[in-house]
Write a structure and sequence with these properties.
Elements lengths: L49 H8 L12 E5 L7 E2 L5 E5 L6 H5 L2 E5 L5 E5 L4 E6 L7 E7 L13 E7 L3 E6 L4 E6 L2 E9 L6 E2 L2 E2 L6 E4 L2 E9 L15 E9 L6 E4 L17 E3 L1 H10 L5 E5 L18 H5 L7
Parallel strand pairs: 2-8, 9-19, 17-18
Antiparallel strand pairs: 1-3, 3-6, 4-7, 5-6, 7-8, 9-10, 10-11, 11-18, 12-13, 14-19, 15-16, 16-17
Keywords: Acyltransferase, Cell shape, Cell wall biogenesis/degradation, Peptidoglycan synthesis, Signal, Transferase
InterPro entries: Big_10, LD-transpeptidase, LD_TPept_cat_dom, Transpep_catalytic_dom
Pfam families: Big_10, YkuD
Length: 333
């Protein structure tokens, strides 16, 4: 399952934010209760061998401490959420990983419906699992980390989590035709008029008002999201570029502030022209429906703009082809 090559350099910095940017631990480990010290009664009439006395007097070794543990696993387990067919498994360790190949060999992924997958290291503490093709819908996937098998780490607790894969939701956004077609389990479920990024604000050679073209994954959602102009340094309400709006039915699709959300008015542009600051604006009914069915890890393919989605912008890992993805593994193929 893990055919891989040498690891790439560390992950580059996150991309420039778009205009739709929003404002914006692992659970503590319980300590075992201290055991009471029970006084030892000695029978002075008993004969004790000198060697036994020496052994009793010798200091005891302190219990071994784990040198590496897991700080966080994404997504959440089967009893908390269902995820989309594009979902990644993101594992964050509690310290830098020195021997990445040894640790990666102790990570296992077992889907009920087999598919090839591989890990990719994106930092000294974070590794991400992606499949070659999308997961099959409506199944369970078991992740296990046998960290106690790492030399010198025998005190570590082995960790496992089972994920629940839901329906196969794949949305296709055509920014030139101003439509979003949502397919559920292979069938067209809804066609929604939209308005995408209008363009026209270039920063560091990037038009940040354009929606990014590429394979996005949904990362989260809010019934109401506060969006402001602070991302571009505009915080004065007197500035004509200033805005602060409460936006309904917001489903996030990148780290650079792109969402699929209800249009805040301007309904005349939906299905006709691109007028947003980078997000995909939809009709109230369409946005609410999409919000309702959205699962983290659902696929949103956007086409028609000159701005390309970067693979490290949010969960946009499907922007890399399979050969490129495997190059981020620490194991040799």
């Amino acid at each position: 399952m893990k055919r891989v090559t040498r690891m790439l350099p560390a992950l580059i910095a996150l991309v420039t934010a778009t205009a739709c940017a929003a404002e914006s631990t692992s659970a503590p480990v319980a300590q075992e209760p201290a055991r009471a010290q029970v006084p030892v009664q000695v029978n002075v009439q008993a004969q004790v061998e000198p060697a036994t006395l020496a052994a009793a007097a010798a200091p005891t070794e302190p219990p071994a401490k784990a040198k590496l543990g897991i700080a966080d696993i994404t997504p959440m387990g089967e009893n908390t959420e269902k995820v989309g067919v594009g979902f990644p498994i993101i594992v964050t360790f509690d310290r830098d990983v020195k021997d990445k190949a040894a640790v990666e060999a102790l990570l296992e992924v077992e889907p009920e419906k087999p598919v090839e997958g591989a890990w990719r290291w994106v930092s000294e503490r974070k590794v991400i699992y992606r499949t070659k093709t999308y997961w099959q819908p409506n199944q369970k996937v078991l992740f296990s980390a046998r960290l106690s098998g790492l030399p010198g780490n025998s005190a570590a607790k082995d960790v496992s989590r089972r994920f629940a894969v839901g329906a196969k939701n794949i949305s296709v956004v055509d920014t030139r035709k101003h439509t979003m077609k949502v397919y559920r389990n292979g069938k067209l479920a809804k066609k929604i008029p939209i308005s995408a990024g209008k363009g026209g604000l270039v920063r560091n050679g990037v038009d940040v008002y354009l929606t990014t073209s590429g394979v996005h994954l949904t990362m989260g959602k809010k019934a109401v999201e506060t969006m402001t102009s602070s991302w571009m340094g505009v915080t004065d309400p007197k500035d004509p570029r200033y805005y602060k709006e409460e936006i309904p039915w917001a489903v996030r699709i990148s780290d650079s502030g792109e969402y699929v959300h209800q249009s805040a008015g301007y309904y005349q542009y939906l299905g006709r022209s691109n007028q947003s600051h980078g997000c995909v604006r939809a009709t109230p009914a369409g946005a609410k429906w999409f919000y309702t069915i959205a699962q983290r890890g659902d696929v949103v393919k956007i086409t028609g703009t000159k701005r390309k989605l970067q693979w490290n912008n949010g969960w946009s890992y499907w922007q890399l082809n399979w050969t490129q993805w495997k190059q981020g593994s620490a194991l040799k193929s």
